[in-house]
Amino acid sequence: MKKLVKLLPVSMLTRFESILMNDFKKAKILVTKSNPEVLEEISKKKVMAVFKHAVKHVPAYQNFLKNNKININDIKTFEDYEKLVPQTNKKNYVKKYSYEDRCLFGELPFKGNIDESSGSSGNPTNWIRSVKEEDMLFKAAKFEFNYIFDSDNKDYIVLSAWSTGPWATGVKFCEIMEHYCLVKNTDTNVENIIKTLKTFGKKYNYIIAGYPPFIKHMLDEGKRKINWKDYNIDVVTGGEGIILEWTDYVKSHLKKSAKVISSYGASDIDIGIGFETPFSQLIRRVASKNKKLRGELFGHHEKLPMLFQYNPSMHYITNHINKQGKQEYQISLLDKNVVSPKLKYNLHDEGGVIKYVEMIKLLEKYEPRIAKKLKTFGNKLITKEVLKNDVLKLPFLYVTGRSDGTVSLDGANVYPHQIEMCLHSHPKLIKSTKSFRIGVDYDKKENINFNIRIHLNKGVKANDNLKQLYHNIILKRLMEINSDFKESYLNDKFIINPRIHLHDYDHELFNVSRIKNKYLD
Predict the structure, then answer these.
(1) Using CA atoms, how far apart are residues 260 and 245, in angstroms rounded to an integer?
(2) Does residue 388 register a pLDDT over 60?
(3) What is the mean pLDDT of residues 52-57?
(4) Distance of alpha carbon 23 from its chain centroid, rounded?
(5) What CATH number labels 407-520?
(6) Pick the CATH number of 131-272 from 3.40.50.2300, 3.90.1150.10, 3.40.50.12780, 3.30.1490.20
(7) What pTM, to 2 d.p., does this model score?
(8) SS3 string of 129-159?
(9) Which label site among 64, 99, 211, 298 has the fewest CB atoms less than 10 Å from its CB?
């Protein structure tokens, strides 16, 4: 099969893939029974085809390669592509070239949609997509929906509780799901969600989708008005990492059979890069208790990364070590219909790729009982949490967080330099501040806290008035420079309200040889 893939032209492989994705059972056989290296080989062939297509038809990419002194004639093989072609990112590509020049043939598509993200500066970045390129995304989403929730055999009503507006997640999620089930866009309105459940009743299956802080808030706020366990509710979430305790807390409010699934996406690429599967969830939970396995999988992170599986025929993803020595990854979109191609695009998320075969070898080494179960039952995975489920032989993507120290919560990214801008907006704050750190943690009730830790200058004493001043100025300025933060804050002030912590000069938290703003693990 692998040899056949090497011989077939990409156009034939793409046509075969498109036909296959229309038939869930056949597509499932491919990704559960076949050699995982087959999909990897398809991925390599497609990335070369997309690269040549972009070189020929995208003015910005032509210019980008020229400015980086890349001779196109030198890129003859996949190995040449890997070795010679430079990465793209928001700074060196997106911000440098016009929207039109980054599109095929140097022009915007006639039909499609425009998503928006606030970006690190607070100035919105728009992302252009055509109608044609969404065909494979819709098919992939249908496969995932069916695989996780058995949607072909169940009637689902999906309540979309993502923040509304021009942001990719809410818009795209509704657009995709309405092709396969009934969807209601409730926004982050707990009353509307409860009213909808009561209106349509207990005979239907429901999926409630939203950012983790809102899902937690919804369950807590609504339990006085509705018994969540009376309804068949599953949860889809994303936009930020979740801890295992959060998942357990959410499940404790729902029926025992409830599924809580996180997905991974980015407005730069698309909302469907990776998704949790029963297998990836099992591995993550096992790794939380097995330090040696966790170390080999994710490096020596104290924080347990999110773990997803992804479709290598849609996204070609490779590991990349940045200048600070942190592991990131580069993503290439593999559909020629993508109107604004992305090749070796670095989101600057910290994490990496683990091949399926490598994952099995690590399980055999550190968790032989689980590996034996996989062999004993063929492709069947049996755990306490899930029913029998065919294991997808897809590669894994683990995501630790933003490598630049960015904090993500409730769909909003807050960047360290934005906090710096807030501090510089008030003379007393900038004089009082030696340094700062930002991060998130969870309280005993699994509520997320957005923490800003201020290291005070020598001679400055912490007091309630100074703490309130920091809070008021940072909140006011963040609302002005970060539209995503403003939207989330206005939807629910409790979830995203900054919690200010003042630390005296030379406090042990900051008493290290090198101080810089960073995510607090």
Answers:
(1) 12
(2) no
(3) 96
(4) 27
(5) 3.30.300.30
(6) 3.40.50.12780
(7) 0.82
(8) EECCCHHHHHHHHHHHHHHHHCHHHCCEEEE
(9) 99
